[in-house]
Amino acid sequence: MKKICACFCFMLLSVGVANAASVVASVNGNPITDTDITARTELMARQGKTSATNRRQAFQNIIDDYIKIEYANNFGVKITDKDADKELKRMNLGNISETMRSMARLAVRSDIAWQIMMAKTIVPNIEVSDNDIASEKSDLIRERGLPIEITMIRVVDIPDNMAKKLSKPKNCADAEKQIENLGGYPQTITAQQYELSEDIRHRIADLPLLTWSKKQDNSVLLVCKEQKSKEYKNLDEIIKQNAIFKQASAMADQNLKQLRRKAVIIINDDRYKL
User: What letter would DSSP give residue 231?
Assistant: First the structure.
């Protein structure tokens, strides 16, 4: 009987050593195993966020998740697995392993907690100026365009001597007539700004109404009319919120760097040394 007990104890000890060896790091006492990192890497690859071999990024993300959740807990913000499962259901990750599901829960809990903390501690202290909104709108115009119906005139293959004679017209009809009198062929286009090509949007982004653009790509442009679409109604508020979110995200990143420096991170595996 003593011999059997001794063997059984040795088996338990061996299992305990194996489990301990699989813990590659800990964050404020939260263990991270090699299996966790594998599952997180596969999860990120499935979401198209990183390559299937980027284990170091997956490891860093797990560390950040624990740090964010603990920081939120200090403010009484606690996101449960049940809360996370509701979001995971919407994400529809399909058939995944239990370890991958556990890592997905951790990521979702962290994300929700961090968003709440941004809203509670950072966003209320951000003030967005008119210049910030104007800058955001300008970026949006260049990147995607706005829900504004634009009527513009384009003249292609325009000689230099004709371009130099162009003057400020009274309206679209006057601009068309001016080009025709100079021997040119005006093209009148009416479209939503976001339907225009990127190069056209860039050229008219800061162009005042009824003002000929400089000659570029052997053409000149003139915006003679703008009309806001129904979707434009809440655009300024949306742009303001985007500007606030950008500033809040930048400040949150700085906060996270400070929290990382304060965290107790113990790494047992040289492959994951930061």
Answer: G
Cα–Cα distance, 22 to 36 (Å, whole number):
10
- In angstroms, rounded to a whole number, what is the distance separating the alpha carbons of residues 254 and 71? 14
DSSP state of 80: -
Amino acid at 241: Q
The pLDDT tens digits of the residues spanning 143-172 come to 777 778 899 999 999 999 999 999 999 999
d(CA 241, CA 228): 20
Q: How far is CA 69 from CA 77, 109, 190, in A?
A: 8, 7, 51
Q: How many C-beta atoms surround the C-beta of residue 272 within 10 A?
A: 19
**How far apart (Å, rounded) are the C-alpha atoms in residues 212 and 82?**
60
φ, ψ of residue 90 in degrees (nearest 5): -70, -30
How does DSSP assign 21-47, residue by residue?
HHEEEEETTEEEEHHHHHHHHHHHHHT
pTM of the predicted model as reported, rounded to 2 decimal places = 0.63
Contact 243, 130 (CB under 8 A): no
Enclosing H/E stretch for 115: helix 98-117
| Spatial separation of the C-alpha atoms in residues 178 and 173, rounded to whole Å | 9
Pairwise CA distance, residues 207 & 225, whole Å: 12
**CB contact at 8 A, 209 and 170:** no
Token pair 């603990």 is found at 70
